[in-house]
Design goal:
mainly alpha, G Protein Gi Gamma 2, about 55% helix, about 0% strand
Amino acid sequence: MSSSNVATMKKAVQQLRFEASINRVKVSQAAVELQQFCLQNALQDPLLTGVSSSTNPFRPQKVCSFL
């Protein structure tokens, strides 16, 4: 075995050990937490509540015209 091959394998083992040490969250638990977050923040979500025309930076600009 060449030294570069051994070094590559050591890096792979190190990466696998790192990935194995990461704490995992079950999908069902993540879904419950996401649902709770969405419900808690629904009143502040402009996509759900809408944006008032006075605070909307994308509203059509008023045109002034002098006759």
